[in-house]
Design goal:
Blueprint: E1 5-11, H1 15-26, E2 31-34, H2 60-73, E3 87-89, E4 92-96, E5 102-110, E6 114-116, E7 129-130, H3 133-136, E8 146-151, H4 153-163, E9 169-174, H5 183-190, E10 195-199, E11 201-208, E12 212-219, E13 224-228, E14 231-235, E15 238-240, E16 270-272, H6 284-303
Parallel strand pairs: 1-2, 1-5, 5-16, 7-14, 8-9, 8-14, 9-10
Antiparallel strand pairs: 3-4, 4-5, 6-15, 11-12, 12-13
Helix pairs in contact: 1-2, 1-6, 4-5
Length: 305
């Protein structure tokens, strides 16, 4: 255990986790970071346009890899594995990763982010239902596909715009009667001839044999109809990733971790940063800021032990 005893254990390799690893290492802490994807879910962003310093944007995958490499360069250790469970006994946090290796630390930062929500409808786990247009969209290139994006807001708009470069037709299926993306996204969507809105339609089932072939939707008038598609991309909300916590902490009704002004949860020594915590803005830049602050406050906590 002595070999795997660290000052700060970070769960999550996204913007918050990598930034915390950079700052923690530069503050002189011995840091270990758990996760198996460099950059975390930032790979879902086709072109990151809201982070200063990258005129014209930067692909999310590239941004994530750079942040990961920078954290490694500062000395943080990445086992490239997820932690199965996090426990705490006698003031020491501990847990095993998926490879069976045990680690311990005096302070922990939860930066695991959040994950897309699946629709709880018949055949909701059918092949052909995707969550990342950048990852899976190219599967439909040169296939004259009709693809559906289910959801609302900027995330749905980003999916539709990315897929419009690949598919013959993109259907934005929204249960609300108004599409709620910001003005910039709506303007880009309106410039695309192959993106159509299907508003006020709730998906109640997926149909197909081995692969999704149609959506069954219920209209505002209560009528049901089938819509033929070749693939589906979900943008139907998110849920925080906290299933590895074997520690009781205060959460919101949606499961996000509550923190104080120093980003500490209700459990001493357990911090949270980024999209996993109760915050008012889910952005890469705010996640990075959280990570930097959490590392500093973790050091202050450790200094007080």
């Amino acid at each position: 255990m002595t070999e795997n005893l660290y000052d700060l254990m970070i769960l999550g390799t996204g913007p918050a986790g990598c930034t915390a690893a950079i700052y923690g290492s530069r503050l002189g802490l011995r840091v270990v970071v758990f996760g198996d994807t460099p950059g975390g879910n930032v790979y879902m962003i086709n072109n990151l346009l809201t982070y200063p310093g990258f005129v014209g944007g930067i692909p999310g995958t590239q941004f994530g890899v750079i942040a990961f490499q920078q954290a490694q360069g500062e000395g943080a250790f990445f086992p490239m594995a997820r932690l199965k469970k996090l426990n705490c006994s006698n003031g020491l946090f501990s847990g095993d990763d998926v490879n069976g290796h045990e680690y311990a630390a005096k302070a922990v930062l939860i930066a695991t982010g959040r994950e897309p929500v699946r629709l709880d409808v018949p055949n909701g786990d059918m092949n052909g239902i995707h969550f990342c247009s950048n990852c899976d969209g190219p599967l439909y290139r040169d296939k004259h596909a009709t693809l559906a994006v289910i959801g609302n807001g900027n995330a749905a708009g980003q999916h539709a715009l990315a897929l419009s470069k690949i598919a013959d037709k993109v259907l934005l299926v929204c249960p609300d009667d108004k599409f709620m993306a910001d003005a910039a996204h709506r303007q880009l969507i309106e410039q695309k001839d192959n993106i159509s809105y299907l508003l006020g339609m709730e998906v109640i089932e997926f149909k197909g044999r081995d692969f999704v072939e149609a959506l069954v939707v219920s209209t505002e008038q209560g009528k049901k109809k089938d819509i033929a598609v070749d693939g589906v991309f979900m943008a139907f909300g998110w849920k925080p990733i906290t299933d590895m916590l074997a520690i009781e902490v205060d959460k919101t009704e949606e499961g996000y971790l509550k923190t104080d002004d120093n980003l500490m949860t209700s459990f001493p020594g357990l911090f949270a940063a980024g999209d996993v915590r109760d915050t008012d803005l889910f952005q890469v830049i705010t996640s990075c800021a959280d990570g930097a602050r959490a590392a500093m406050y973790a050091m202050e906590f450790l200094d007080g032990l």
